Q: What sequence folds into this?
């Protein structure tokens, strides 16, 4: 039986290409890192220093914690199509395409963490040029209701677990202000959750996952900056409504009324133009 | 008209023989199931062993379970007060006040849901994580610091040996899972079934209750008062889960304590089941807790806002509480979301005394002095 040479040569070339790619599915992929930076009113977040001029009454605060989960990361090409970032499993900070970013290092006034830091999400994506990025600050529903004592990292963090609610704090941004002894804390997570503790049979009336979509972003040269101090610019961080959680801990906590809209999250009586926490630099 | 006392006895008799351990249940101390009590359901992955019980008991009373080493589970759950703390609202290890009071752990192993108004917490193994890591309020204070918690026990040869004995076959048995599993095994043995009521109904001692208390028992189970519709079963509480029950139903009720603004609203940090379901009909719904040992567990209600048993009876007789002025003002009797079972009733002075006598007969002096449940360290 005659076989032409061309198909065999093509087959050989494809094999070579596939082994050089190292990716599954046959399309080329490349390593991609997303760099994040966290700031309070323009200054980098650090556990070892105070910050002035915070909130509507310009208080001086010291940091306690800053950590947040990132999931559903897609890079965007010029034609608007989405390409998933496949996070590398590292057994510690990235698992099942969810990363826990960690800006506190347990030093100074950060008494609720440890020395580990993480500001970069590492993974692979299609080998293309990207001009934008989309991601969610939050844990997907299917992973949000797990047993935090036995789950794999980063789902076994006691600081991020909302044990009474069987889910996670998606964002934990906690400060110490002079006027709120218990800490002015921002804990964003799903609320109004029912269903059994196995999770998937339930539902939450407020998902509270923060959707972020950034244009003019090149992962090779740009950084995603989170300006956390600005979230508090309409909050008097020296005051907490009596008999409510210290700071904004989601639900119908009144201090959340001027924070949730800035994250694109619904809160009764407010409208939002989308998240304003993250921008590209 | 059926004799409610006889009905209660027959109902209770149905359980005699269900307990697998009903041997020397009248001896003081010990962990045997009381006469007539059904067995506690255990999760398949955490059956009772003596070693786990010993570890759980040690941990329960161990102040190393708080970051600042001032507080243990036993601080808020004191055996002498039927595992409560006598406060309207609990206070954490750093001085932060909880919106609600510490619940009695008597018979907690039978509870279908745990804590005052949470439909998600069903296993003791899960509940223990809440006081350990809570930030609102800070209770034991270990949020983010579990490595320090485990190091305390790993570095203590006595404790480490207890972990090893309780969880054999693990390279490192000192884990969070071990801690909460051991605590759960201990708590499942906090069983209260030796009150005068139990002696009458389950142990067949005819004069265990005074005549007044017997009249009070009949009133309690009567259609006029209907106390047992919320405080029923062997635990005088929401429906119990035990071996033989496939799945008890949840029960959360609004008993008309608040009606802020006439909408039935409760204070914003104590909306009960509404906090989870967001259903306006669930505003102010809480799980009816056990009335066993109730004379030891004042003050009353989820926020301790009713100080005495007499006032509790008056509250239910009225059919809801009226707060005359201030930010919590409103008449709970008129609440649109109050349970239909809290309809109010007429009660004579003597009948009030009879009910109080009955409620006092639910006190179990053996529970509060059982050496097997007490603090192992002097």
A:
């Amino acid at each position: 039986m005659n076989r032409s040479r061309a198909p065999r040569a093509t087959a050989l070339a494809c094999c070579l290409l596939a082994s050089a790619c190292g990716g599954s599915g046959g399309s080329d992929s490349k390593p991609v890192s997303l760099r994040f930076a966290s700031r309070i009113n323009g200054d980098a977040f650090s556990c070892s220093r105070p910050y002035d001029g915070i909130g509507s009454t310009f208080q001086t605060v010291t940091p306690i914690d800053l950590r947040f989960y990132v999931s559903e990361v897609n890079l965007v090409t010029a034609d608007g199509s989405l390409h998933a970032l496949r996070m590398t499993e590292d057994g510690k900070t990235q698992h099942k395409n969810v990363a826990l970013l960690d800006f506190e290092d347990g030093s100074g006034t950060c008494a609720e963490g440890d020395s580990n830091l993480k500001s970069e999400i590492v993974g692979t994506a299609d080998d293309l040029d990207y001009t934008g990025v989309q991601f969610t600050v939050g844990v997907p529903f299917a992973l949000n209701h797990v047993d935090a004592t036995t789950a794999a990292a980063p789902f076994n963090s006691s600081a991020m677990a909302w044990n009474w609610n069987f889910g996670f704090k998606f964002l934990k941004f906690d400060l110490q202000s002079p006027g709120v002894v218990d800490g002015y804390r921002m804990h964003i997570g799903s609320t109004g959750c029912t269903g059994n503790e196995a999770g998937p049979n339930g539902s939450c009336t407020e998902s509270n996952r923060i959707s972020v979509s950034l244009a003019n972003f090149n992962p090779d040269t740009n950084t995603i900056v989170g300006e956390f101090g600005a979230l508090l610019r309409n909050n008097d961080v020296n005051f907490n409504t009596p008999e409510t959680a210290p700071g904004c801990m989601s639900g119908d906590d009144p201090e959340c009324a001027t924070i949730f809209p800035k994250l694109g999250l619904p809160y009764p009586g407010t409208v939002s133009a989308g998240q304003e926490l993250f921008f590209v630099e | 008209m059926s004799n409610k006392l006889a009905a209660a006895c027959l109902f209770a008799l149905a359980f005699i023989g269900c307990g697998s351990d009903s041997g020397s249940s009248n001896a003081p101390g010990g962990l045997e199931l009381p006469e007539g009590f059904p067995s506690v359901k255990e999760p398949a992955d955490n059956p009772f062993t003596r070693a786990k019980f010993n570890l759980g008991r040690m941990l329960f009373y161990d102040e190393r379970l708080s970051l600042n080493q001032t507080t243990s589970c036993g601080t808020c759950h004191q055996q002498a007060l039927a595992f409560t703390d006598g406060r309207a609202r609990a206070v954490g290890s750093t001085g932060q006040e909880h919106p609600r009071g510490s619940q009695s752990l008597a018979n907690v192993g039978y509870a279908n849901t745990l804590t005052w108004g949470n439909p998600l917490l069903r296993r003791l193994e899960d509940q223990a994580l809440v006081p350990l890591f809570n930030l609102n309020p800070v209770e034991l204070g270990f949020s983010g610091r579990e490595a320090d918690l485990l190091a305390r026990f790993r570095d203590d040869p006595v404790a480490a040996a207890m972990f090893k004995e309780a969880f054999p076959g693990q390279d490192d048995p000192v884990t969070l899972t071990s801690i909460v599993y051991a605590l759960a095994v201990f708590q499942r043995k906090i069983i209260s079934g030796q009150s005068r009521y139990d002696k009458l109904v389950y142990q067949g001692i005819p004069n265990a209750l005074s005549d007044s208390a017997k009249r009070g028992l009949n009133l309690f189970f009567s259609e006029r008062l209907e106390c047992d519709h919320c405080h029923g079963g062997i635990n005088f509480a929401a429906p119990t889960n035990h071996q033989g029950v496939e799945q008890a139903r949840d029960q959360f009720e609004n008993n008309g304590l608040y009606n802020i603004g006439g909408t039935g609203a409760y204070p914003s940090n104590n909306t009960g089941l509404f906090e989870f379901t967001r259903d306006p009909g669930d505003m102010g719904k809480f799980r009816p807790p056990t009335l066993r040992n109730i004379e030891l567990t004042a003050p009353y209600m989820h926020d301790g806002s009713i100080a005495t048993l007499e006032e509790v009876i008056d509250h239910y007789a009225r059919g809801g509480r009226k707060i005359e002025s201030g930010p919590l003002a409103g008449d709970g009797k008129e609440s649109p979301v109050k349970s239909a079972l809290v309809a109010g009733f007429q009660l004579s002075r003597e009948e009030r005394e009879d009910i109080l006598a009955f409620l006092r007969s639910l006190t179990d002096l053996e529970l509060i002095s059982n050496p097997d449940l007490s603090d192992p360290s002097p």
About this structure: The first strand of chain B starts at residue 322 and ends at 323. Confidence is low (pLDDT under 50) at residues 6-27 of chain B. The CA atoms of residues 49 and 166 of chain B lie 8 Å apart.
